[in-house]
Amino acid sequence: MIMNNVNEYPHQNIAYLCTDWQIERGLGESVALKWISATQELREFTFQDLANLSNRAANVLVEHGLVQGDRMMILLPKKPELFAYFLGALKAGINCSILFSSIGEDTLIDRVIETNTKLLVTNSSFYFRIRRILPSMGQDFKILMIDENTGTGNVTGVLDEFSQASEKFKTVSTEDDQPSHFHFTSGSTGKPKGVQHRHTAVENHLASFNEIMQPDDETIYWCTADPGWVTGVTYGIIAPWIRGITQIHVEGNYNP
Question: What does pTM read for this prediction?
Answer without folding.
Answer: 0.94
